[in-house]
Amino acid sequence: MTQMRYVDGLRRAIELEMERDQRVIVLGEDVGVGGPFGITVGLLERFGERRVINTPISEDSIMGLATGAALAGKRPIIEIMFVDFITLAMSQLVNHTAKLRFMSGGQLSVPLVIRVQQGAGGGWGAHHSQSLEAWFHHVPGLKVVAPSNAADALGLLRAAIRDDDPVLFIEHRGLHFRRDEVSDPDAIPALGTAKILRGGKDLTIITYSKAVWDALAAADELAARDLSAEVIDLRSLSPLDMDTVLGSVRRTSRALIVHEAVRQGGLGAEIAAHIQETAFDWLDAPMHRVGAPFAPVPASPVLEQAFVPDTRTIVAAVEQMLGLAPASSTEDPLERRRA
Amino acid sequence: MTEMTFAQALALGLTECLDADPRVTLINSSYGGLTSYRTTFNVLREKYADRITDTPISELGYCGIAVGAAMTGLRPIVALSTAAFSFEAWPQIVNEAAVACYGSAGQVTAPVVFHMLAGIRGAGAVQHSHAPQAMFCNAPGLQVVAPGSPADARGLMRTVALRSNNPTIFIDHQRLQGIKGEVDETAPPIPLGVAEVKRQGTDATIVAVSIMVPRALEAAQILAQQGISAEVVDPRTLVPLDKTTILKSVAKTGRAVVCDESQLTCGVAAELAAIIAEEGFHTLKAPIRRVGIPNVPIPYHQAEEEFITPTADKIVAAVKAVCGR
Amino acid sequence: MTQPHSYSVEAKRKFLEQMLTIRRAEEQVIHFATDHEDLIRGHFHVYIGQEASGVGACAALGPDDYVFTTHRNHGHVIARGGELGPVLAEIIGRTTGYNKGRGGTFHVIAPHLGILQTSGVVGGCVPLAAGAAFSIKKRGTRQVSLVFFGDGVLEEGAFYEAVNLASLWKLPVVFVCENNDVARERRKGGASPSDSLAARQLTDISNAFSVPSVTADGADMLAMAAAMGDAVSKVRGGAGPVFVESRITRWPGNAGTFPALLGGDYRLDWALAPSSGPKELQDWLQHSDPVALFVRTLVANGAMSKADVEAMDARIRKAVAEAASFALASPAPKAECALEHIFAA
């Protein structure tokens, strides 16, 4: 049993795969000096300039170049410093990277991993704090992964690097320094598999990335009130493991979807739509979605804290779903907008 | 009241905007795309050549210029042509235009309209058949309108170009260009956030967006002949969205089919279905069905392309399914 | 291209005052980050060492001109006339800030000063500034649109598109590139290679788009004022865009990920006698600090005495301290304000 930090899991995954496969290369802004969050520290010294490449601030070209390199035999891992900057590479990503296998009738493969660092909580403001996975969930040809803990950071990143299709790998900045037990450091889970982190019978909470921890804390609070919440960590956002989700909903009959990203048009919409299509008769109550309000991310600490859904928001949403009196007496006008 | 094509109605709306406000300025004028209806828009150049700026192939550059111009007193309407090209300009639309008002606490506004032709146009293949509306709906600060009839095209353009102070995505579709409809020239501009019931019915609600509006109406005709009375609700504007009209209709019929020509996974239909499932749950007699494009890029060959296109007959099948038929 | 300019004593005093105000305000911002827990939670960027560039540019502008800038905006906002209280309050996210706290350090927007956007996305502002110039031209006014950006922007596609369009359409925009990692020997001109740009020097690129371009020493206050004055007046005259590269040698405190006050708060003694300064700063103080260079020139020419300079600095430090207290005492926004101003009414 090892304890590991999330950032160490990421770094270890890259190191192991670079050792194993000479075709794996790393590109990005400042990756040679470790990147802004230190994840690529030491790689340049270990693997050299031919495999760890610092790029100028040119996201569109980095994406295009890496796509081209992937077509021509490499297995690139690129780092987009803040997911907000992926907007600069949208055309390459959506029009080329994601589509080449399809366009070529299956002849071409793009084994590219796009690591992005996302999420609010640092007071960085609207251009450095977004959560954009819904856009990419909507783009066929792209896989999307969002680990919530160090073990998955390690295992799923290795899986992503070994995958022959482009994978958008979402690392929440707020998770970087969390430590987790890693029971099997060599495990490489399959992409597209969710995990039930906590069993329960009264409702199912479906979530991913940093929100997982708020959901587990909420489940603890609810347990003290004799409510048993099952918490599912999706881990992969595309493809989604709807079998695990539906299996759970059929057992609990109630579904709450939680994510930090904006609620409107977020992943929760797809999950809710899908659940009611397939498991409609099992639902005892309307589903709820918890997400950020329809607003850019504010910079001010007070506003940012109000903006991001947390344990309290989740508990309030459950209270609303189950028609319970609120445990806390403070009225948060934002909660209505988030759930 | 005049019958006119969607293209004619949009051209009329644009002309009225140029007439009404000298601040309105056109960046490119490729409204009709590759269709023969593109000549309908020649009237703009005949009357207002000096109000049209033709650009090089620099979507990021000219969309950014449009945003900056909107922040400083003009009301630009950008014709991006194929919606897939909006990806080139994504940072200016989503990271600049959308946040201008919020970031400045309301002091700066960006009244710019981005017009684009989305969706399956026929042989557009993988890179020219995009439907990005769902992604724009997920970006706070952008309004998204999607007219499905000539009157709505004209009425909505007049609103977003003349009255609204917010950046707007104007979703158009090549296959709408030739659709005919009645336009009341005396009608006022169409407000945002107001849906329209395009056809009354009692057995099922079809919520339809953009090109799916004429297809839904066609489906409703077919269903009527089979004894099913379908109500067609056209949201007209996706952001802001008129939930009330949609939920009222579903409360009446108890059955809903939601249609948008975009990939189903996390598409517009997903958000609409989720809203109905959350807020209209107790009125539903059956699960909501979504009609859209499967989660694939758009293939080139006609047979394959038709296979994945959400046409009227697919709407008919979905309605029959929710009606248990 | 630069005409000989002469500046009155009064004008020179004003320049120094603005430079010192920016310097002391940015020190205060660093103190906000280091002396208070969680006051500035994310990254922030300071303008120390670059003052001459912003002051020179803003001095050339008129009240109706537009200014666009980047995440490194504090110095530009102050040079343009931003008041210390609302600037510092915005940086720490309080309601009395220019954007009521929602922009923070990366986005101090002040529309009443013509500052309409400060983009956190590299390259974001350049097309916007060209757009404001487009609007000016369409409306037929004599305004100018000026955009500050770093050398990194020339790595982004948006720059090329915007410069090309501005040049083709003869838009009244002044492109001010603050190239802030230039070796001191290269500041006055000539090749300036970098390992992220294949051009021999930045102005080769703007020249390739037929945009008149000039390189100026960003540590030389009067040279910057002259270069910017010429650029703005040329653009205002309708000739089309102009590109100014302001070459700056980086302040050593900006070498790391976060700014650091090496040797503590700046001392005027260091300006007058660099050898009395901290070891890490001596070369910079001697050759590249715009404040030190200007102070030494003013004192040597008798335009100001050492006592004058010290008195000016003391007044400024007091004003900054008051503004900091104002900012710290200002209320944080109410949580539900997060939902306001998403759309204009």
Topology:
The complex is a heterotrimer of chains A (339), B (325) and C (345).
Chain A: E1 2-5, H1 6-20, E2 24-28, H2 43-47, E3 52-54, H3 59-71, E4 75-80, H4 90-97, H5 100-103, E5 113-118, H6 133-137, E6 143-145, H7 150-162, E7 167-172, E8 179-182, E9 195-198, E10 203-207, H8 211-223, E11 229-233, E12 236-238, H9 242-252, E13 255-262, H10 267-279, E14 288-292, H11 301-307, H12 311-322, H13 333-338
Parallel strand pairs in A: 2-3, 2-4, 4-5, 5-7, 6-7, 10-11, 10-13, 13-14
Antiparallel strand pairs in A: 1-8, 6-12, 9-11
Chain B: E1 2-5, H1 6-20, E2 24-27, H2 42-48, E3 52-53, H3 59-71, E4 75-82, H4 90-97, H5 100-103, E5 113-117, H6 133-137, E6 143-145, H7 150-163, E7 168-172, E8 180-183, E9 196-199, E10 204-208, H8 212-225, E11 230-234, E12 237-239, H9 243-253, E13 256-263, H10 268-279, E14 289-293, H11 302-308, H12 312-322
Parallel strand pairs in B: 2-3, 2-4, 4-5, 5-7, 6-7, 10-11, 10-13, 13-14
Antiparallel strand pairs in B: 1-8, 6-12, 9-11
Helix pairs in contact in B: 1-7, 3-4, 8-12
Chain C: H1 9-35, H2 51-59, E1 66-70, H3 74-79, H4 84-91, E2 115-119, H5 125-139, E3 145-150, H6 157-168, E4 173-179, H7 202-208, E5 213-217, H8 221-236, E6 242-247, H9 268-272, H10 282-287, H11 290-300, H12 306-329
